[in-house]
Amino acid sequence: MEPLGYAAAAIVVFVALSLAEVRLVLHRSAPVTHLLLIWLGVAAALAVLVIVTRGASALPVAIASIAVYLVTAEALLFVYAAALTSLSIRILVDAVDREPDPDALVHALARHPPEAFLDVRLDNFIAKGHLTLTAGHFRVTARGRRWAQKGRMLKSILAVGHGG
After folding, report:
1. Taking a C-beta distance cutoff of 8 angstroms, is the pair 21, 34 a contact?
2. Alpha carbon distance 39, 98 (integer Å)
3. Residue 41: which residues within 8 A CB-CB, separation 6 or more?
4. Residue 10: exposed, middle, or buried by beta-carbon count in 10 A (0-12, 13-18, 19+)?
5. What is the spatial distance between Cα 149 and Cα 119, in angstroms, rounded to a whole number?
6. Angle, CA of 74, 162 and 137, to the nearest 5°
7. Alpha-carbon distance 42 to 71, whole Å?
8. Residue 29 per-residue DSSP state
9. Total-model pTM
């Protein structure tokens, strides 16, 4: 039960630090990379705290605490990333905000056109070297092919099919 207490305290620290960065430092949503650094930093601090306060014999407690913390905080990161980037969530929130307008969904779709989100992703692929754009034609680079192969393998392992 002791590892759960340490993990719970670490999750509280992770959430507090994340909210402090968002509300007090950035004044906007935090990039996921910032949150990943906080996530890993809190994990390292948790390990040090347990070992320093309890001694080397507490290594099993430290490992269990870190495992519970990392899995739970990763779930929080996943939910944050989904809320931050999900086109579906953006459209639904905007439609609900426009109620009782009978055309709320139409207005929401006009505000969040799928093409705009696709353009951002394509620009990101180009910036990261996964695609090139020449004379109006996209081409997958060698780097993009490596990523696609890894993605194909992951999709096969997770049995998510062609889509998803």
Report:
1. yes
2. 36
3. none
4. buried
5. 23
6. 100
7. 13
8. P
9. 0.62
Residues 6 or more apart whose Cβ sits within 8 Å of residue 62: 6, 46, 47, 50, 51, 54
Residue 136 phi/psi, 5° resolution? 80, 5
Q: In this structure, what token pair is assigned to residue 55?
A: 């001694």
Q: Write b or e for each residue in 52-72: b if 16 or more Cβ atoms lie within 10 A of its Cβ, otherwise e.
A: eeeeeebeebbebbbebbbeb
Q: What is the pLDDT of residues 4-57, one digit of tens each?
A: 999 999 999 999 999 999 899 988 888 888 989 999 999 999 999 999 988 888
Bridge partner residues of 138 (DSSP): 133
* Phi and psi, residue 99, nearest 5°: -60, 150
Q: pLDDT higher for 31 or 147?
A: 147
- Asked whether the bond before 102 is cis by omega within 30 degrees of 0, the reply is no
Query: Rounded mean pLDDT of 78-100?
Result: 85
Task: State pLDDT tens for residues 116-140.
Answer: 778 888 999 999 999 999 999 999 9
Cβ pair 18, 33 in contact under 8 A = no
Tell me the torsion sign for CA atoms 97, 117, 148, 161: positive
Question: Which residue bears the tokens 């099993």?
Answer: 60
Residues forming beta bridges with residue 137, ordered by sequence position = 134
